[in-house]
From TrEMBL:
<dbReference type="InterPro" id="IPR006287">
    <property type="entry name" value="DJ-1"/>
</dbReference>
<dbReference type="InterPro" id="IPR050325">
    <property type="entry name" value="Prot/Nucl_acid_deglycase"/>
</dbReference>
<protein>
    <submittedName>
        <fullName>4-methyl-5(B-hydroxyethyl)-thiazole monophosphate biosynthesis</fullName>
    </submittedName>
</protein>
<dbReference type="InterPro" id="IPR029062">
    <property type="entry name" value="Class_I_gatase-like"/>
</dbReference>
<feature type="domain" description="DJ-1/PfpI">
    <location>
        <begin position="3"/>
        <end position="165"/>
    </location>
</feature>
<dbReference type="GO" id="GO:1903189">
    <property type="term" value="P:glyoxal metabolic process"/>
</dbReference>
<dbReference type="GO" id="GO:0005737">
    <property type="term" value="C:cytoplasm"/>
</dbReference>
<dbReference type="Pfam" id="PF01965">
    <property type="entry name" value="DJ-1_PfpI"/>
</dbReference>
<keyword id="KW-0677">Repeat</keyword>
<dbReference type="InterPro" id="IPR002818">
    <property type="entry name" value="DJ-1/PfpI"/>
</dbReference>
Length: 183
């Protein structure tokens, strides 16, 4: 079974975090949520999320994918935590999947993981003036190699379904999507 780490930081976008976690679990994927610190995480709209563990404890495990939820304050906290940058570089060196949505693709850009790649984000977070070494697209979900990025809360379901397909196959994605009654 594929395994995914979802780091949760104070100020993360709860719609994105919960959608990602929920759809990956529906896809039969083992998901571990990890707070940057111990205890509950207050998300951007005040919803309290309870991570499975801390990032320090999670780093002792190996994952097939790491997914960074967005939300400007949460993404900034992820970006400022050196353990996240180290984790992302380790995942890239092992050719594992790295995914980020909304404001979080900026964390990937700052870690140098979007250099020479196509990517997307919430408008204004990976400005091509600051990051001229990437190709910015406005597609809902962009995959370039093992890196997947997405725009924001409105694209969270498409993003999560794309991740299910990468880790569990098209048939599982179709099964999960059918159960959602999407138009």
């Amino acid at each position: 079974m594929a395994s995914v780490l979802v780091p949760l930081a104070e100020g993360c976008e709860e719609l994105e975090a919960v959608t990602i976690i929920d759809l990956l679990v529906r896809g039969g994927i083992d998901v571990l949520t990890a707070g940057l610190t111990e205890g509950p995480v207050k998300a951007s709209r005040g919803v309290t999320l309870l991570p499975d563990t801390t990032l320090t404890e999670a780093l002792a495990h190996d994952f097939d994918m790491v997914v960074l939820p967005g939300g400007a304050p949460g993404a900034e906290r992820l970006d400022n935590d050196p353990r996240i940058g180290e984790l992302l570089k380790k995942m890239a060196s092992k050719e594992r999947y790295i995914a980020a949505i909304c404001a979080a693709p900026k964390v990937l850009a700052n870690a140098g993981l979007l250099t020479g790649r196509q990517a997307t984000s919430f408008p204004g977070f990976i400005d091509t003036m600051e990051f001229s070494n990437l190709t910015y697209l406005e597609d809902p979900v962009v995959q370039d190699g093992k890196v997947v990025t997405s725009r924001g809360p409105g694209t969270a379901m498409d993003f999560a379904l794309h991740l299910v397909e990468l880790l569990a196959g098209k048939a599982k994605r179709d099964e999960v999507e059918a159960s959602l009654q999407r138009p």
